[in-house]
């Protein structure tokens, strides 16, 4: 479904600032796989997501979606296939537009330009129904500007928007990290629900090892641009955060802030 084959990316090659962000990375995901991604700072996690989204084009290797080589497609050309939520709650929504206008943008993603821009009654009803699932009461605030929402509300809306047009793959880049524990818990719960309901193939980067083990059916650990651990459902369900810390401990040069990671 999502195939990353022999992908490599080096920033500033041949200079003193050279950074080998991805080194010969292979990852095969089947439809409905939910993979959590952990790794120390600078391990290459965001770069991996960026190569799937098309924000960064790899130097070597192939990224395929549904058997189609998308390696040379730019980010906007993959937009209908890829949903993404970032760490920053401000990144996924437009603050000066209302909730329904934001959802309208999400609804139009990947559809031909020139489709009616207005929010029809039928659409409004669909938006309200989708918002009800968030259990935040946003369905009665369709005309509220998104800039007035709290970080947690915005992130829940970002998640809804990223998944609204049923992307082929969902990328979550530490999307709960900037929220307080209660809101993070809420957004994690919503994530599980929406991924399960829509059967989305998902890659989720997190620094939180408890979350990495609780969520998803597979876990990968990255270090210095490589996937150095790939754990399937059975082993993952038996692993503890301490086991993951022990794996980090085996790595040379991996700096782990275990307070953050065990929160
Ligand atoms: N746009 C860029 N330009 C130059 N170097 C970059 C760029 N993006 C990432 N890098 C470098 O590539 C390496 C991998 O970075 P990346 O952001 O993918 O790591 P990460 O695992 O997501 O780290 P973190 O957990 O700290 O966010 C790092 O050395 C980083 O400095």
From TrEMBL:
It is a peripheral membrane protein. Keywords: ATP-binding, Cell membrane, Membrane, Nucleotide-binding, Transport. It is found in: Cell membrane. GO terms for molecular function: ATP binding; ATP hydrolysis activity. Residues 2-249 form the ABC transporter domain. The keyword ATP-binding applies. It comes from the Bacteria. The keyword Ligase does not apply. Its main location: membrane. GO terms for cellular component: plasma membrane. PANTHER family: NITRATE ABC TRANSPORTER ATP-BINDING PROTEIN, TAURINE IMPORT ATP-BINDING PROTEIN-RELATED. This is Putative ABC transport system ATP-binding protein. The lineage of its organism: Bacteria, Bacillati, Actinomycetota, Actinomycetes, Micrococcales.
